[in-house]
Amino acid sequence: MKETVLSGMRSTGKLHLGNYFGAAVNYVKMQHEYDCYFFIADYHSLTTHPNPTELKHHVREMLATYLAVGLDPEVCTLYVQSDIPEIPELYLLLNMIAYKGELEKTASFKDKVRKAGQTINAGLLTYPVLMAADIIIHRAHKVPVGKDQEQHLEMTRNYVNRFNRLYEKEVFPEPVAFNFGDQLVKVPGLDGGGKMGKSEGEGNAVFLLDDEKINSKKIMRAKTDSGPTEPNSEKPVEIQNLFDIMQLVSTEETITTFNNAYNDCSIRYGDLKKQLAADVEQFIAPIRDKAKSIYDNETYLKEVMQHGAEKARINARITMDMVRDAIGINY
Ligand code: TYM
């Protein structure tokens, strides 16, 4: 039997290069090798982005992007989280074995508290529990994610082990973070800081559905320094970040040319950025153009959502029968 792969993205905005190369890069290949469940985490987005108009738009946009990169709804199971009522049911039950202290120590929660002070909702605190429910509702073995989700996966494994031990049944397998390469990926942002992210500031992320002008402008404005003064010196973080992004979209030859130019101090950052902008555009243009035409076909998108929900619920119901059975809620 094929192993089960589960992956999701929050519907807080358009997908960026970090989402793509962190998690989705191998989705198309995976769908043929594993039993794949790919979904849009719309409940998760309500923890920070409760806007009905934007939500609808983002969910449609994400679904169109998934289809544009080559996901086949007949091969994999492609669905929206809120279409599966078994997920919130499992989330409720998992909350009984999730410890408050443990949730308060989660890096993503601490980060939100730091940024938002007191206006923190309980959904943010229990965000990892909902994520665990997403994963184990399909009894998943592998979860394609970027490096930033490692801790959430660790927490999912804790809940799995706690549940199986408490009820003395191997209901859930232990899911592992997954990437076809040997390491989880962290795609850097354009602002010289940490990761590329939707909420990391305007100029930080290159979105798959933005047009050439917007993306080029962002890349041309990316942070750089005044250039190397000594041959073969180590690259500062902001320059390494640009090379790291280049690694994802440019040819080996281009990368070698700019590396050599850096090492002999002849590099001109304007040229590097221009080349990067052109390579990014070449990479995303086919995805963007296809996604835009799929986005306009509302009937098709609704069909895909409905079909995905039906398929996902079949497996989710099997899991919930096992869960209720284990807990004893089966009078
Ligand atoms: P989200 O929506 O922030 O990101 C979706 C996926 O993209 C990856 N990612 C990155 N990878 C590398 N470099 C980056 N700069 C970068 N930015 C984002 C993330 O690691 C993730 O794999 N909580 C999740 C959504 C979610 C989920 C799930 C994921 C809900 N339930 C169940 C997997 C399984 C999130 O906010 O991801």
Task: Explain the overall architecture.
The protein is mainly α and 331 residues long. The protein is globular and about 75 Å long. The protein has a three-stranded parallel beta sheet with strand order 1-2-3. Strands 4-5 form a two-stranded parallel ribbon. The protein has helices at 17-22, 27-33, 42-45, 52-69, 86-95, 100-104, 107-116, 122-125, 127-136, 150-166, 212-220, 237-249, 252-263, 269-295, 298-327, and strands spanning 4-10, 35-41, 77-80, 142-144, 176-178. The mean pLDDT is 96. Bound molecules: tryptophanyl-5'AMP. Tryptophanyl-5'AMP binds next to strand 1, helix 1 and helix 9.
List its traits.
331 residues, mainly alpha, Rossmann fold, Tyrosyl-Transfer RNA Synthetase, 3-stranded parallel sheet, two-stranded parallel ribbon, 15 helices, 5 strands, binds tryptophanyl-5'AMP
Could you give a short description of this structure?
The chain has 331 residues and is mainly alpha-helical.
